[in-house]
Amino acid sequence: MANALAVTDQSFETEVLQSATPVLVDFWAAWCGPCRAIAPIVDEIAVEYSGRLKVVKVDVDSCQSVAARYGIRGIPSLFVFKNRQVVEQVIGAVSKQALVQKIQPHLG
Fold first, then answer.
1. How many domains does the chain have?
2. How far apart are CA 75 and CA 27, in angstroms?
3. Strand, helix or coil at 99?
4. Residue 88 in contact with residue 77, Cβ under 8 Å?
5. Residue 50: which domain range?
6. 1 pLDDT higher than 90
7. Choice among 32, 38, 63, 78 that is catalytic
8. Which CATH number does the domain housing residue 16 bear?
9. Are the C-beta atoms of 21 and 52 separated by less than 8 Å?
10. To bridge 94 with a disulfide, which of 2, 8, 98, 108 should be the other Cys (CB 3.0-4.6 Å)?
11. Are 80 and 102 in contact (CB under 8 A)?
12. C-alpha to C-alpha distance for 84 and 32, rounded to whole angstroms
């Protein structure tokens, strides 16, 4: 989680919804095996797209109101936000290539 910013219920509005750049939000939990499996991919994307994409992580156990607001039922759930809106969703562990294909159309 070194390269992705941890976001809470309190900081979600500022860090995600008010972001000038698109944001990849990784809804995850520490006990989730698939979440841990894709964590290195999420971190790689954070580094590779730095400046063009903000990458944040939301722990669904400690940020239950944000998770409920977006109807998170399965994790990992990766959402791309742009201009305060969810523009893309990926549910479950996917390859880096699949995730990049979902993100790229939304980058400036």
1. 1
2. 6
3. helix
4. no
5. 5-106
6. no
7. 32
8. 3.40.30.10
9. yes
10. 98
11. yes
12. 27
Residue in 4, 7, 24, 35 annotated catalytic: 35
Which pLDDT band, with edges at 50, 70 and 90, does 42 fall under?
very high
Give catalytic status of residue 63 as yes or no: no
61-66 contact pairs (CB < 8 A, 24+): 61/29, 61/30, 62/8, 63/7, 63/8, 63/9, 63/12, 64/9, 65/9, 66/7, 66/9, 66/12
**Would the CA dihedral through 26, 32, 34, 40 be positive or negative?**
positive
Residue 60 has pLDDT above 90, yes or no: yes
Q: How far is CA 46 from the centre of its chain?
A: 10
42, 4 Cβ separation under 8 angstroms: yes
Please list the alpha-helical segments (H only) found in the chain: 12, 33-48, 64-69, 96-103
Note whether 28 and 59 are within 8 A (CB).
yes
